[in-house]
Amino acid sequence: LRRIGAIGGSEFRGNLAGISKEITNLAIKYGIASEDIASGMVEFTKAGFNMKTITDELIEGAAQLAIVNQESFQTVAQVVTYAQSLWGDSVENSYELMEKMHTAANLSIMDINDLASAFEYVGSSMVIAGVSFNEFLATMASLSNIAYTSSENVGTLINRILVNGSKLEGILGLAPGSIVSEGVVNVKGLMEVLAGLGSRWEITAEIAELWGVRSVKAFNSLMVTAGGENGMLAILEVLEGDTTNLAEAAKFMTSSF
Predict the structure, then answer these.
(1) What distance in Å separates the CA atoms of residue 84 and residue 95, rounded to the nearest whole number?
(2) Dihedral of CA 29/33/38/44: which sign?
């Protein structure tokens, strides 16, 4: 608590008793160690969130996400911070981000640690390219289903598409502006095209010549995961619908059998 006060300043130092009570209540409600919750609050405070945002929008949702995914609260707090910092302006509230992360994890073998890596290596690239949070989650979730873990290569590929999308459109036989328009990469549109390519692997030779072998691996993985029952487009459709099931899942995890 002293560290929270030292980092957060007077707003936090004057409310340490209330913060302590909040931590205790969450620890009892969700069966999470108080020390873990306190460490997560340090992460939120270091990220610059004010006390009202932490207590009203972040802390309980993070506790639910932690208990449902059997992950430490501190790790979840870091992932929530990444999501809020990158895509917070695109949603109504922070809890929506957490619900979407929970849904994406449920539809794939991606876990919270995988998400942390994805945010680190791909997040900024996708934000700069105008990719939505739903598209980001659906892409990374579908890639996890084929055990593709090189998030860094995906980020590099997105950057290259953003900078040189016209050549990719030429390779795919698309009209100019189909994939990249006004500085935005249409990831959903790209995946729809890739889902219809089937086994046209000759395209990868042109990708290799254009962007190198690492980009080929990422591009081929996107091609494989675009369509199908567990593919990017299927996951994206779910994420764009009703994803309000995190609280219910957390309630189930903490209930007695």
Answers:
(1) 10
(2) negative
Tell me if 9 sits within 8 A of 51, measured CB to CB.
no
CA separation, residue 192 to residues 35, 57, 68, 201 (Å)? 46, 35, 32, 16
- d(CA 68, CA 235) in angstroms, rounded, equals 19
Crossing angle (nearest 10°) for helices 213-225 and 187-195: 80
Q: pLDDT by residue (tens digit) across 40-82?
A: 999 999 999 988 889 888 999 999 999 999 999 999 999 999 9
Q: Which residues make beta-bridge pairs with 181?
A: 184
Asked if 70 and 103 count as a contact pair (C-beta separation under 8 A), the reply is no
In angstroms, the Cα distances linking 83 to 30, 87, 88, 250 are 22, 6, 7, 20
From first CA to last CA, the distance across the chain in angstroms is: 35
Could you give the CA distance from residue 77 to residue 126 in angstroms, rounded to a whole number? 21
